[in-house]
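Re: Re: ligand-bound prediction request (bumping)

Still looking for help on this. To restate: I need the protein modeled with alpha-D-galactopyranose bound, output as structure tokens. Inputs repeated here so nobody has to scroll up.
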Amino acid sequence: MKNTLFNNLVLFAVLFLLPLQAGAQKYKGLALTPPMGWNSWNHFACNVDEKLIREVADAMVSSGMKDAGYRYVNIDDCWQGARDSMGFIRPDPERFPSGMKALADYVHAKGLKLGVYSDAGWKTCGGRPGSRGYEYQDALTYAAWGVDYLKYDWCNTDALNAKGAYLTMSHALEAAGRPIVFSLCEWGDNKPWEWGAEIGHLWRTTGDIYHCFDCVVNYGTWNSWGVLQILDMQKPLRQYAGPDHWNDPDMMEVGNGMSVAEDRAHFSLWCMLAAPLIAGNDIRKMSPETTEILTHQEVIAVDQDPLGIQGLMSRKLGDIEVYVKPLSDNALAVCFLNRSKVPQEVVFDWSKNPISDAVSNVSYDFRKNEYSIRDLWLKKEAGTTGTPLKAVVGGHDVLMLKLTPKK
Ligand code: GLA
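Reply:
Sorry for the wait, this slipped through. Here it is.
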């Protein structure tokens, strides 16, 4: 009898515990398409509390965002209070008096998921307690609360090795036993695209975004970047992205002060990049234009295409750049971006512009195959590739098309 018990214990250890220790890896399959949700930082910075998070969860349902595919309600920096005498992290008691478990329950009851933020260093960027030295304890705490997504930042990390630090938290999340999407926020400093795929589900590729279309904001020791600046930094990285491991060009600024055309272009480009679609505006008070952009099903479908191919810039015609993204069923998304502030006329002869992508190993020869064209933003059929495209693209705007093979 004793022997049987002992044998069972050994078997249990071999089957369950040892693999956790030896080959521990991220939870697989949590982000087969780019994660969609909302995050507090871009609009609210440190001003977060449980009332806001509950109202945002309500708004995600009432605005149609949940129906459009958004799931994660992510609290960024400054939710933390102090650690208790046992080292457990506690939320700021004034801002989150009901506690995080109650908040997670509220969000889950709406069919949504809850995200939190921490930092690999000893303090977060906002000066709250970081997870350094508390990784396993914090992961257990998040799991007990019912957290579904962790964004893990890189401030105050001194001499830490980036891959090692993110690996520690990845192992900790795995050991905690709850599937939690792991979002690496290391700003691209240590090339996370080269080592992040086994550790997490997405990794930031740049410093912070700013709500401008074409600008750089200099803070002395660091910059934040406009939409075009971030777009240009994605070009060498597309081969690293794919299902369950995405390049993250940062959370969106749609609805945070750019023009409607700029917001539309920003959203279209993030979809062309197969970027995580994490809204960063106050979704409780959105203009109809902002709501229409964020919930546009046909444009979102380009982002969420199951092949998960990050788009590429295929042609440059003066101020117009032509982005393409291979889609399932031999379809193709094509996005004409006008980088200038003035409207530009585009004449594009498909037959003279075959498209080939060495990374995904697909090509489109419009002399051999004809495609039907749909204008995604206008939700209208727009001819075929048999005749040259003629269009005017507004300043800082896009024309976004889906090409489908004609039967
Ligand atoms: C860093 C991150 C931002 C945000 C802030 C919070 O700057 O890159 O996205 O999380 O920290 O302090």
